[in-house]
Amino acid sequence: MDSITALALSVDSPVLKVMGLFLDDALAYGAVVVGLVLLGESRNDKRLKILASLLVAVLAVGTVKYAMAYERPCAGEEWCPEGYSFPSMHAVVAFALMTGFLNKRIYPLFLVFALFVSFTRLNLGVHLFRDIAGALPIALVSYYLTDIVWREKDGS
Predict the structure, then answer these.
(1) CA–CA separation, 98 and 27 (whole Å)
(2) What is the CA radius of gyration of the chain?
(3) Ramachandran category for residue 136: left, alpha or beta (phi over 0 → left; psi -120 to 50 → alpha)
(4) How far apart are CA 120 and CA 89, in angstroms?
(5) 127 and which of 49, 100, 101, 121 could share a cystine (Cβ 3.0–4.6 Å)?
(6) CA 136 vs CA 59, 62, 84, 111, 151: distances in Å
(7) What 3 state SS string does 71-120 have?
(8) Could you read off the pLDDT of 58-92 as tens digits, one per residue?
(9) Cα–Cα distance measured from residue 90 to residue 38, given in angstroms and rounded to the nearest whole number
(10) CA-CA distance, 85 to 6, in Å (whole number)?
(11) Per-residue confidence at 14, pLDDT binned at 50, 70, 90?
């Protein structure tokens, strides 16, 4: 296990665990992400572009997860999410969301959210640092590809 993952695992906070488990729930996490998009962006076209980039990111993660097939570090333990570890779906979505707000004053909030989500994945023991690190380029490429298609659609 790498030192960053070990450090995150060593933080023993009941509040952090509860928040991490809340975000682990797909419906709860999805609601938080959609809520942040709606609250953070007032232009419907940009909201749709961000949501489209999240869809692209989710599809990319699904493909990479099954191509790489890395077992989760918690595999075999009493509680462990299903599926493979690399890359972290939660982190990819959080980083893609963050990227959608890169040019806004509210960006630091989205950066902190992405880092917090990533930390909770490590703290719960369901991912290693490589899973989080691998999430960032997938998120960036997903947003960039969506942006290219969006510009072509708008003719700009």
Answers:
(1) 19
(2) 16
(3) alpha
(4) 13
(5) 121
(6) 15, 15, 17, 12, 23
(7) CCCCCCCCCCCCCCCCCCHHHHHHHHHHHHCCCCCCHHHHHHHHHHHHHH
(8) 999 999 999 999 999 987 788 888 889 999 999 99
(9) 19
(10) 16
(11) very high
Q: Tell me what percent of the residues of the chain surpass a pLDDT of 70.
A: 99
Give the separation between CA 134 and CA 136, rounded to whole angstroms.
Answer: 6
Nearest to 131 by CA among 86, 91, 99: 86
**Residue 156: its pLDDT value, please?**
59
pLDDT at 79: 84
User: For 128-138, how does the pLDDT look when each residue is reduced to its tens digit (9 = 90+)?
Assistant: 999 999 999 99
Question: CA 77 to CA 53: how far, in whole Å?
Answer: 34
The position carrying tokens 């899973």 is: 131
pLDDT tier, 23 (very low <50, low <70, confident <90, very high otherwise):
very high
* Tokens matching residue 80: 């462990």
Cα–Cα distance measured from residue 109 to residue 41, given in angstroms and rounded to the nearest whole number: 13
Q: In terms of C-beta distances under 8 Å and separation of at least 24 residues, what long-range contacts does 30-34 make, across chains too? A: 33/93, 33/94, 33/97
